[in-house]
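dumping this here before i forget
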Amino acid sequence: MTDRATDGGSDGDEEYGLAEIVDLEETTAPDLPYRPSDPDSYDPNIALVGTGGISDQHLTAYTDAGYSVVALCNRTRKKAEEKNDEFELDADVYTDYRDVLARDDVEVVDLLPHPKQREPMIEDALRAGKHVLSQKPFTVDVDFGERMVDLADDKGVTLAVNQNGRWAPHWSYIRHAIDEGLIGDPHGVHFNVDWDHNWIVDTEIDEVRHAILYDFAIHWFDILRCFVGDAEPTRVFASFEPSPSQRATPPMLGQALVEFDGAQATLSFDADTKLGPEDRTYVAGTEGTIKSEGPDLEEQTVTIYTADGYASPELVGTWFPDGFHGAMAELLSAIEAGREPYNSARDNLRSLELCFAAVASAEDHEPKTPGDVRTMRGFDPAE
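structure:
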């Protein structure tokens, strides 16, 4: 067999396309609208229900954007008061979300509690005529989610999901590059995430059996759908296992293989990586490739490869809090324009179907078809 590393013949290289790869030149990265985009003039009164740890990212994003947060609600009044003071909001504080919904001047409600606690709040808010941004994961029951989508339509209000990863700078740039056709049709999407998720010990998340494939990986299942567009997943196979050194209760290792007609995706999560963390996204298309890599979710370098060359844009911003800004900004822009938001609950249900299928596959050790699994497996309905 000829050693291609030492063979001087150029014809073989050109046959395999290696010469073209070697000769790629650095070019200027395309200018893409990856940053959050605020509405032109719509400035509604916003209420935040739930002021736990993640509310810091919501409130940082909203105050930086100049949004009008007029009410905070938490079952423990002191927690809401502390957020009110910390962010200098001068908002009204409540302990019962129904008192917030009774206010005629509140148009948009941001609901942060965990899924089962949040579900009745979503329905009550929609029936009260409020536009709703639901925290992710949207629900543990696809049928419930579909009823809420129908209810929002009936009430003439907008229901969106805070899938903030869509506006993480690196993922947002990648999805815009794909939407512009810069790499052709994606046929391979691959995610590798290695980090330490043991911080969930002594938190409510530590009680979620599928903290990795469900609570965390929903971002990856969701962005996968954004990357592949209208392509429908035909089958998913997933698994999960505990790591021998993890401190958290739920298994910290998870992976999934997703099949499409003419494409595939792999997702690998090692949430017990003590040293040398890495986060990598790779999308191969019919006319190019785009990838992003770095030590974590916040520090990422994107590189795009096309026939014109390769380029790395200088991205501005970070997932936290820009992703939270993007999710609310898109909801407000959609309300202003009278259109469905990019992060609509209707669209998000397809991401949940993929996620639920992966979890069920991990539970049963067999492939599943997205859409067939209607509820979240391994989830305590009382949570």
